[in-house]
Amino acid sequence: MLKLSANISTMFTEHAPLDRLAAAAAAGFSAVEMQFPYELDLAALVAAQRAARVEFVVINIPAGDFAGGERGIACLPGRHGEFLQAVARAVEYAAALGCRRLNCLAGNRPEGENPSRCWDMLADNVAAAADVLAPHGMQLLLEPLNRRDNRHFLLGTMDEVLRLRAAAGRTNIALQHDIYHAYASGEGELPELARRIGQIGHIQFSDYPGRGQPGTGEIDWPAFFNWVQELPYTSRRIF
User: Fold this and answer.
1) Which of 3, 54, 57, 196 sits in a 20 to 30 Å window from 233, CA-based?
2) Which DSSP state fits 115?
3) Is 239 part of a structural domain of the chain?
4) pTM for the complete prediction?
């Protein structure tokens, strides 16, 4: 049986952030994920989690100036120290919340920067982050963002993520498979998902096009969920 989590960064937004955990629980969710919890007081967040009795399954590593257009800093030459500080902060939050998966956004390639230099920086940072997470029993997720919406994002396809995973050579690295981004990149067909299922640590879904709730786009959701339930995927597999 599938276990569903609510992304409280995009759901229950009529509530204040801390109140969204209780709202998710009231709606029947036993697990939640959150993009960037770092503006919230950690003790207050833990208290809200315990009161709502929900599990945290994924949070993102801090991704630089997100409001200013940055989509991660892991690929950016010259910001290795800042990236390691971001990883340390994410581990602090994840450990307190009992969260075992941290998603790392690669970042946008700066205009005029050598793509190979960014790739090498990303591979080094991903390996370093995985080494920090491993003693805590945590898994590092890598997520491709489609280049229709994110022209300069360094990881645009699942195959690129898996190539990076192989280059990093760490066993606690997995793919975060976002159904919307997969469809926008031409990788959304179910056989594509099945082919990579053993390398996927977490699946996110929203409809395509439009990135709205299921039923607002073109994806056949009954077929999708029936298919996923037949695949050897478990949200509890770490490494």
Assistant:
1) 54
2) H
3) no
4) 0.95
